[in-house]
Amino acid sequence: MPDARISVPPSVARGKPFEVRIIIRHAMETGYRTDESGKSIPRNVIRTFTCRYNGDVVFSARMSSGIAANPYLRFFVTAKDSGQLAFEWVDDNGVRGSDSAAVTVV
Amino acid sequence: MTTSLQSRPSRTRRRLLQSAAAVALVPWLPANAAADELPEIPALSAFLAGRKPRLARVHLTLPQLADNGQTVPMKVSVDGPFGPGPRVTAINLFSEANPVPEMAVFEFPVAVDRAEIDSRVRLATTQRIVAVATMSDGALYATAAEVIVTIAGCMDGT
């Protein structure tokens, strides 16, 4: 079951920043909503998101219920060597998600 | 003589146009003023801890009017290039009226040549959003943007 959609350019120029886009499938429950029976739905949002480039953290985000459902992030990473971007996120329930994308530096 | 007679009505017309333009501009003043000073947000004051960010270099792009507060496109960027000088290490987002004022923190553990982030935010109601950029030398830069929200993003039963 894919939990994220990632977009990275097919090839990137060494030393130049390149665009990374990711959408994670997650309800980002605010904790302020109630279900049909009037019971409050507990808060469950992605708290932390990290992006590693060949093992090194290059970008991270700490989020709250102020980020919309199915969080979308677009940011830039400076190209160094070909390799992998690894994404990881953790929500309030401690559920971890991860995904990765290949980076080809020319 | 004829010229002065002709110029009199035109001067009146100019004055009329000027006052009309002034009246038309008045509703925009609060929106412009939003960029000149930061709103009072306790979480922001706690974060700043007395430090005064310079209202420069940071750009926060949000729609002036958001039909649906559930998902509002947001772009925040810090003017570069940074070169060998101080670089951006973090960008904090604060909300004036959301139940959770600390909306997000974006961190750059390594130098990034383009400090620009797009995301989508949830807004409880019409409010101002503040973005504060922290540089590696401790300098702070900030900006604020106002969004009018017609449908609230948080149903909290109130």
Describe the structure.
The complex is a heterodimer of chains A (106) and B (158). The radius of gyration of chain A is 16 Å and the shape is elongated. Helices cover 0% and strands 49% of the residues of chain A. Chain A has 106 residues and is mainly beta. In chain A, the strands form two sheets. Chain A has a four-stranded antiparallel sheet with strand order 4-3-6-7, with no helix packed on it. The mean pLDDT of chain A is 93. With 158 residues, chain B is of the alpha+beta class. Helix content of chain B is 25%, strand content 36%. Chain B has helices spanning 2-25, 29-36, 42-48, and strands at 58-61, 65-68, 72-78, 88-95, 102-107, 115-121, 127-135, 140-151. In chain B, strand 4 (88-95) and strand 5 (102-107) form a beta hairpin. The longest helix of chain B has 24 residues, at 2-25. Chain B is globular and about 60 Å long. The chains are: A mainly beta (106), B alpha+beta (158). Chains A and B meet through strand 4 and strand 5 of A and strand 5 and strand 6 of B.
Q: Strand order of the main beta sheet of chain A, please?
A: 4-3-6-7
The biggest beta sheet of chain A, please? 4 strands, antiparallel
Instruction: Please tally the β strands of chain B and state the result.
Output: 8
Please give the CATH class of the largest domain in chain B.
Mainly Beta
Largest sheet of chain B: 5 strands, mixed
Sequence stretches where pLDDT stays below 50 over 5 or more residues of chain A: none
